[in-house]
Amino acid sequence: QVQLVESGGGLVQPGGSLRLSCAFSGFTFSRYVMSWYRQAPGKERELVATITRAGGVTSYTDSMKGRCTISRDNAKNTVYLQMNSLKPEDTAVYFCYARGVDSNDNFARYPYWGQGTQVTVSS
């Protein structure tokens, strides 16, 4: 089993920054595409950012483009989400997500989810 543990959430003022971390354990981290999702109260869970296995390609939701950066350190089995210029509407539980990829670039059918870390942006 893969286990994902998020950390780094907390309370930050508007305009501030946070870096979320997700520690991966269980199998081979470098074989997993990693993402961050978030879910605000009363809203659907949305994809925030994704990074490929070696970190060469990233993608972001439109609302956070230019304000966040996803990165990974395969030597440390960790994926990060650096968030800057935070806004109250960024308040949500942020979840780490992993989906395996085999040697033929086929995605695993089932992903893994972390437990979530709360980010609150408020003055």
Helix content: under 10%
Shape: elongated
What's the helix count? 0
CA-based gyration radius: 14 Å
Derived from helix and strand composition plus strand pairing, the structural class reads: mainly beta
Short recap of the structure:
With 123 residues, the chain is mostly beta strands.
Defining key terms:
single chain, 123 residues, mainly beta, seven-stranded mixed beta sheet, four-stranded antiparallel beta sheet
What can you tell me about this protein's structure?
With 123 residues, the protein is mainly β. Helices cover 0% and strands 50% of the residues. It has no helices and eleven strands. The radius of gyration is 14 Å and the shape is elongated. The model has no long low-confidence stretch (mean pLDDT 96).
Topology:
Layout: E1 3-7, E2 10-12, E3 18-25, E4 32-39, E5 46-51, E6 58-60, E7 68-73, E8 78-83, E9 92-100, E10 112-113, E11 117-121
Parallel strand pairs: 2-11
Antiparallel strand pairs: 1-3, 3-8, 4-5, 4-9, 5-6, 7-8, 9-10, 9-11
